[in-house]
Amino acid sequence: MPRLVTLPTGMRRRALVRGAAVALGAVVALAGCAPASDGETLTVLAAASLREPFTALEATFEEAHPGVDVTLSFGGSSDLADQIEAGAPADVVATADEPTMARLSDAGLVATPTVFATNVLTIVVPSGNPGDVQSLADLGRSDVDVVLCAPEVPCGRAAAAVADGAGVTPHTVSEEPSVTDVLAKVALGEADAGLVYVTDAATEPDDVETVPTPEAADVVNRYPVAVLAEPQAPGLADEWTALVTGEEGRPALSEAGFGAP
């Protein structure tokens, strides 16, 4: 029987405590031109690492569109692509890398994507660093249990590229379907180290510590967003994409630690 896991307090509250000021500031700009759309729903599929800024932008968008319900669904980018290929109803998708989006674009399932943010990886360890991890090379030690994203997930591909570039073979004990799952295992002390995006590491200051990872600067993930080829709410989908890629969305992304495209 699966063991129930209680996430650290910081993970339960991270989507609520940041970005509120940014969201309120953007409402004024949007509200002047957006009509009310009572009873409509906008469904957005997004990479797990986008939870914090997209949650802030959800409040911004709903405030500017009375009656609209923005439904956010987060997960590993490859899982989101699987859902779209299977015909899951949605309006917008944002992935953590371009190859995953290209898979959807090549299949004619999305309109032209736009890159709106960048991200890089860092090593995280449990608070107190019980494994005494000081560098990327330490992830290859047999006494250091490492958890990574699965190779088909953008953060997994990035982790492999960082490790390969440094000539390190991590002592991997688990591969997870999303970056938030990696972070949770490290925060709970179920691994000595993991590789996650710097944006995710910043959400858990009480439960994890970061280890300098200069090698990761050479592997930059570019995040694209696109409207699906057959969206349920095309007008709202276009407006959400404009919010994410425009000046109104940039502060929320910057606050969460994402780089400019």
Give a structural overview:
This protein is of the alpha/beta class and 261 residues long. The protein contains ten helices and ten strands. It has a five-stranded mixed β-sheet. It has a five-stranded mixed β-sheet with strand order 7-6-8-5-9, sandwiched between helices. β1, α3 and β2 form a beta-alpha-beta unit.
Low-confidence stretches: 1-37
Report the total helices: 10
Q: What integer is the average pLDDT?
A: 88
User: Under CATH, the topology of the largest domain is which?
Assistant: D-Maltodextrin-Binding Protein, domain 2
Regarding CATH, which class of the largest domain?
Answer: Alpha Beta
Sheet of most strands: 5 strands, mixed
Helix content class: 25-40%
- Rg is 19 Å
SSE topology string: HHEHEHEHEEEHEHEHEEHH
Q: What proportion strand?
A: 15-25%
Distance between the termini: 44 Å
| Shape field | elongated
Record field, number of beta strands:
10
* Strand order within the widest beta sheet: 2-1-3-10-4
**Helix/strand-derived class?**
alpha/beta
- CATH homologous superfamily grouping of the largest domain: Periplasmic binding protein-like II
* Tally of distinct domains: 2
CATH architecture of the largest domain: 3-Layer(aba) Sandwich
